[in-house]
Amino acid sequence: MSEKQESLLGTRTICQIAVVVHDIEKSSRAYAAVFGMDVPEWFMTDPGNEIGMTYLGKPSDARAKLAFFHMENITLELIEPVGGPSSWQEALDTKGEGVHHIAFNVTDTAGRVKALADQGIEMIHQGGDPATGQYTYVDASKQLGLVIEMLEGY
Amino acid sequence: MSEKQESLLGTRTICQIAVVVHDIEKSSRAYAAVFGMDVPEWFMTDPGNEIGMTYLGKPSDARAKLAFFHMENITLELIEPVGGPSSWQEALDTKGEGVHHIAFNVTDTAGRVKALADQGIEMIHQGGDPATGQYTYVDASKQLGLVIEMLEGY
Which of A92, B23, B43, B152 is spaced 20 to 30 A from A41 at the CA atom? Predict the structure, then answer.
């Protein structure tokens, strides 16, 4: 008898769908018009070098402008990359505007990174600290056609 | 005083995130392993020419293999395009595996297609009939970085 299967993320609730864009103000106005919502304020993330950001194993000082649309069952996040190498900038440069990742709230990010690596799904981009808020991207594009973000401690 | 804004889709609930893949069986096994779920049966859609499918204004006999993973708050759909021109095949050919669209359950598809066209968001791909089940894709890639699917009558 097989043990009950568990999600390698500890959850099956997708909390965000994130889209990289060239101009967050222009995109925010378009989202607001289509979904009948107010245009949200965007905010700028802390510089990567202040939050221990790494991208492909190297420190990065990238930042991003973020805006959030709270849909009924999930949040749509807009990301405009600003300066420095990041998975956001790389996606925008190589594929243009589009979905960058789907996100999950997790605990034990370090353990999950290990379990995902056992499936060939490698960490590519991380910033912050689990105690105060950490995001971690793993590249599952070969396995799932997706980048997955794990959010811990927010 | 401004009127309360309405979503052009009549809803802000995203029911599906869909990913185009090369091999639905291989991808289904990978999704099942990551999310700790059973591998679902895939099924083949009816041929496009039997359900009045159009793609970029022309009839198409494209089909697709579909598989569904019911997450807690949303469904992940895998799509393997099979034969004939379609937005699924085009996305796979030009961008590789990745998110194809996000979907909404709607009423009055025809009216919504019109309202979206007023925003420059054009219908690209449609199949079926609203009475028995119809899907309609609109290309919002310039406005939202997304293709949106409207589902009616399923």
Answer: A92
